[in-house]
Amino acid sequence: VDKDAELVAQWNYCTLSQEILRRPIVACELGRLYNKDAIIEFLLDKSSEKALGKAASHIKSIKNVTELRLSDNPAWEGDKGNTKGDKHDDLQRARFICPVVGLEMNGRHRFCFLRGCGCVFSERALKEIKTEVCHT
């Protein structure tokens, strides 16, 4: 597997449902990203053993995930202008950025979230702030 493609998948797709991440987005203690509705469906439908269920087997209740407060990237265009399907997608352009230093959340830089409030920062910003108190 191409390492860049794997990073893009981790940062753009739900670990459980493999669908594109859409708000509300939650994260587990392992740092995996999920669509909140996929986690709720997983927790409600324990009867069926799904192959992808192993990716969330450590999640026993909704309290095991934190809803993330992500900052939108103003430079991200998404599907705008892609009416014919002939648009080139820049895989390094990310939907979300660090609100402190402006790094894009594309897999090249480490990101952290505060479990109390769900705010997401780059690791570089968290080192500069030197505190784990929400600043918003």
UniProtKB/TrEMBL annotation:
Q: Do you know which Pfam families this protein is assigned to? A: Rtf2 (PF04641)
InterPro entries given in the database record: Rtf2, Rtf2_RING-finger
GO-annotated biological processes: DNA replication termination
Instruction: State a GO cellular component annotated for this protein.
Output: nucleus
CDD domains annotated for this entry?
RING-like_Rtf2
By sequence similarity, the record places it as follows: Belongs to the rtf2 family.
Briefly, what is this protein's role?
Answer: Replication termination factor which is a component of the elongating replisome. Required for ATR pathway signaling upon DNA damage and has a positive activity during DNA replication. Might function to facilitate fork pausing at replication fork barriers like the rDNA. May be globally required to stimulate ATR signaling after the fork stalls or encounters a lesion. Interacts with nascent DNA.
Q: How does it assemble?
A: Interacts with DDI2; probably also interacts with DDI1.
| The protein, known as | Replication termination factor 2
Q: Please name the source species.
A: Balaenoptera physalus
